[in-house]
Amino acid sequence: MAAKTKRSSTGSKGLTYADSGVSIAAGDRFVGSIGSLLRRTHGQRVIDNPGGFAGLLRLDYNEQLFKHNYKDPVLVACADGVGTKVHLAIEMNKHDTVGIDLVAMNVNDLIVQGAEPLLFLDYIAVHAVDQQVLYDIVKGISDGCKLAGCALIGGETAEMNDLYQENDYDLAGFSVGVVELKKATNPLRVEPDDIVIGLESSGVHSNGYSLVRKVLKHAKLKLDKVYPELETDRTLGEVLLEPTRIYADSIVKLLRSYKVKKIISGMAHITGGGMEGNLNRSLHDGVDAVIDERSWEVPPIFDLLQKHGNIEEAEMRQVFNMGIGYCLIVRPSFADAVIRRLEKSGEKPHVVGIIKAGSGKVKIKNRRK
After folding, report:
1. CATH says 187-365 is which class?
2. Helix (H, G, I), strand (E, B) or coil at 365
3. pTM of the model as a whole
4. CA 280 – CA 115 distance, rounded (Å)
5. In which band, very low, low, confident or very high, does the pLDDT at 25 lie, cut at 50, 70 and 90?
6. How does DSSP assign 142-205, residue by residue?
7. Nearest 5 degrees, angle CA 205-CA 359-CA 311?
8. Contact 185/77 with Cβ under 8 angstroms?
9. What's the pLDDT tens digit per position in 38-95?
10. CB 142 within 8 A of CB 99
11. What residues form DSSP beta bridges with 349?
12. Are 99 and 241 in contact (CB under 8 A)?
């Protein structure tokens, strides 16, 4: 219901923001309800700023500690979204995981540079404020920030009913981290005989969902149905909404454990473009990454999508992560130790390839088909 307004001298009712479908009061109520979700991600670096127009964060809460850790600190920043995966969340009326995806898509890019995530900001665009839906989304963002070890210090909710259909929303995020300049990853450090280690993904992650939804429509697949070929008692929708794995904690711990030696020569977040379109960004023109595609098991969800969509193998590899969500390029004498450390952090690492002299390409051998 539109808010009551004063009448003009002619007796006609003046237009209000509420008449356009935007409720400032509803937005204020939502902002007031999520304070605890932000505070649970805050450490000693965050400066309390009630009513502020922006969040405040110290580069380090202990000046002497900061000087010890960073002699030449460089800020690292990135922005990303969740894409059309939000359509599945809307269709299933399950909104508490896409926020994790949002954090993951940002911090997984950021740590590729060797950076420690510091802070996160979100942007949520909606048709209209729905308190429960928005709370669930921000709860997921807060969960993601806890997993990534960064502070959620603010965000923006934009109510635009003339741009978004009823129940629609979109998500975007922005993350900032810090890295010691001499420890930042550099493709020029990659050498022949370096080992490529792949970390398992949690599923489709947050890329390729326009194709996923096309397959669902084409094959008339049901999101609420359990498909035996998925080898799980979860429904197809639950498998597809599995949030993107956040690798930040494992990678930051690994980097901290080698304070002097530069045993990691490169890293890559495997997103849209697949292994060939992302790992190559970590190579210089004098080397190739030779990847053995049979060195890891491809999760069943990809086989289901390929089968029901009649998708060519090359297209699958170009669009999806195919089971490996993150790659590290490691000096050969340290590969076993790195794998053990990653396993202790809860990752599932595989030696997926080796670096050879070449021209900056990713070459696949032992293709699945």
Report:
1. alpha beta
2. strand
3. 0.87
4. 20
5. low
6. HHHHHHHT-EEEEEEEEE-TTTS-TT-EEEEEEEEEEEEGGGS--GGG--TTPEEEEEEPSSST
7. 35
8. no
9. 777 777 777 776 666 676 677 765 655 555 567 888 899 999 999 999 999 999 999 9
10. yes
11. 199
12. no
What the block records as the tokens of 70 is: 């960073």
Q: Which two tokens stand for residue 41?
A: 């991600």
Report DSSP letters for 234-300, one per residue: S-HHHHHTPPPPP-HHHHHHHHHH-SS---EEEEEE--TTHHHHHGGGG--TTEEEEEEGGGSPPPH
Sequence-ordered list of residues with C-beta below 8 angstroms from that of 227, at least 6 positions apart, any chain? 221, 236, 304
Q: What are the structural domain ranges in the chain?
A: 18-181, 187-365
- Mean pLDDT value across residues 133-145: 95
Structure tokens, 182: 């001499």
Out of 61-65, 142-146, 205-209, 260-264, which region has the weakest mean confidence (pLDDT)?
61-65
Torsion of CA 59, 64, 65, 71, to 10 degrees: 70
Token pair, residue 228, equals 């035996």
Across-strand partners of 151? 119
CATH number given to 18-181:
3.30.1330.10
Distances (CA, A) of 290 to 29, 311, 356, 358: 54, 24, 7, 10
Of all helices (H) and strands (E), which one includes residue 183? none
